[in-house]
Design brief:
245 residues, four-stranded antiparallel beta sheet
């Protein structure tokens, strides 16, 4: 039998170029290619770290003295380490903190509202409403903090960037017992979007090793990108976390 009329090539109907012309598809592609500091740098070094400094002494009694001293030090500021940089990952895992202090906040963020598993065990899915006002007290079980943020600072975390005039805000909430929590963004519409999971790490015995990367197999995912810092190891692929003894 003679060949029938040929069907159009499927790629010509839903070609890559047309997908990249769609704003959301282009945003997903840009997100995967970006580094942690491009996505979360302003929020992590800003609101999340300021919140960490405030709650650190409740999470780890006694560390507040060292944090206060560091705040007074000249030209001191938190370092940001992107563990998934240059790998085209749609899940970004990073750290912000101080190797000198040994105090770090590890965070995980994924573009969009959903963050399907598997997630690291330290990802604590706390509710983000109602806001409440517990204050920073040693008897607190959950501590929340809210601050205004510039639209440009939170834009990297959102699928649709807010307008330049939007009243954007950050909400950080941590479970004191677990030392883990969530960070949410209000893009100016009054609705909180959960954008980060985080945990605060301050190992009591940090040893004398320095921040190095070893190609050691992660026991959780089998990845070979285990970042070893003073006092703890964290997997650059899945976020598995273990305190050194």
């Amino acid at each position: 039998m003679p060949d029938g009329p040929s069907l159009p090539d499927r790629s010509s109907l839903t070609g890559r170029s047309s997908l990249l012309d769609r704003p959301q598809e282009r945003r997903v592609s840009e997100w995967a290619a970006a580094r942690c500091d491009e996505i979360a740098g302003d929020v992590a070094r800003g609101g999340l770290w300021r919140f960490t400094e405030v709650v650190a002494d409740v999470l780890y009694p006694g560390v507040g003295v060292a944090v206060a001293a560091a705040q007074r030090a000249t030209k001191w500021g938190p370092e940001l380490v992107g563990l998934t940089d240059e790998r085209g990952s749609d899940v970004k895992i990073g750290l912000v903190g101080s190797e000198q202090l040994g105090l770090w906040t590890i965070f995980r963020t994924r573009l969009g509202q959903s963050d399907p598993g598997p997630r690291p065990a330290w990802c604590t899915d706390l509710p983000i409403g109602p806001v409440g006002a517990e204050g920073v007290r040693r008897e607190s079980t959950i501590i929340s903090g809210i601050e205004d943020a510039k639209p440009a600072d939170v834009a990297g975390l959102l699928l649709s960037p807010p307008t330049a005039a939007a009243g954007t805000r950050l909400l950080a909430r941590v479970d004191v017992r677990l030392r883990s929590g969530v960070l949410a963004v209000d893009a100016g519409d009054g609705r909180w979007q959960r954008r980060m999971y985080f945990t605060v790490v301050f190992p009591p015995s940090r040893g004398n090793t320095h921040h190095e990367r070893y190609r050691v197999v992660c026991p959780a995912c089998g990845g070979r990108r285990l970042a070893q810092l003073r006092g703890f190891d964290v997997c650059s692929d899945c976020g598995w976390l273990a305190h050194q003894t």
